[in-house]
Predict the 3D structure of the following.
Amino acid sequence: MNLDFSDEQKQLRDQVRRFLEERCPPAAVRKVLEGDAGYDAGLYQGLAELGVLGAAIPEEYGGVGLGHLELCVVAEELGRVLAPVPVASSIYLAAECLLLAGSEEQKQEWLPKLAAGEAIGCFALKEGSGRMRAEKIAARFENGKLTGIKAPVADGMIADFAIVAAREGQGVSLCLVDLKASGVTREALDSIDPTRSQARLTFEGAPASRIGAAGDGWQIASQVLDRAAILIAFEQIGGADRSLEMARDYALERMAFGRQIGSFQAIKHMLADMYVSATLARSNGYYGAWALATNAPELPIAAATARVAATTAFQHCAKNNIQTHGGMGFTWEYDCHLYYRRSNALALALGSLSTWESLLIERMSHGNAAEAAA
């Protein structure tokens, strides 16, 4: 197992990093944070023109056809700059769902638009707080019509279509809904990070088409969430690394009592702890990237492991970045709060940290029991 990216993938990383450093400085993130736009449309179109949105989408569907390792590379760079774009919703979730279970007609209609940045998708699973289970889904899909409420839905206010988990008969199915059609109402929700907007979607007999077979929705959704968990973990790894860099740079610049504050033992220990958590997250992320790229049987465990490690690392590094900056770190003018906001927003994406910890324990226990039985 080669747990490193190839030279070509590293070149892709450098290219995307240069692009994002030029097109997505902190001022661009603040513009979305403080304005009314739900995302940076110019940046999103630029990413499409660069080809990164279609990195893991096959060429026959308008993508570049590189693979998921390349998408992990892109995700890390997006996380470093806190890119205010709906890549997670459109590419990690909606596109992956279509690739896994969509019909040929659905793929031909939507995947080229997603790769070109001409359409935005979202994934509507949650119905309130707490761990989402199949039995908790109340939205219903009957006779081609969808009824129910989904909240929170990431990027639901800006998406063109949604993939929705709904009850059909005794099981759960996934259905695709055009959010511009009749019977759909959207309401913006408050969020700790407005650059990743959240919405409540209400469906009242909205026309919809099923994705996959009837009753297979929960199984498909679980696979999609595992795959997206690894990609979002790389965003968190990028954010954790950048938080550590910010703290290190400030510790070397800031003087107190005639010395750099980085020379004080408390700051040294804090930075060392940040480095350890970020490095552990990267190690687990690489394991997840391998499992995702090869569709290995270990993918469910690798996804939960990467998710837990990356969430813990980003929250830890973002918090300690503020602590390292001291009183300045709490001010609006410094960028520390931007990373703290994103770390907490991503900690709840796809389910809370405790949910993924429980999944990891359950999956490891199941694997141990299977080995014991064998």
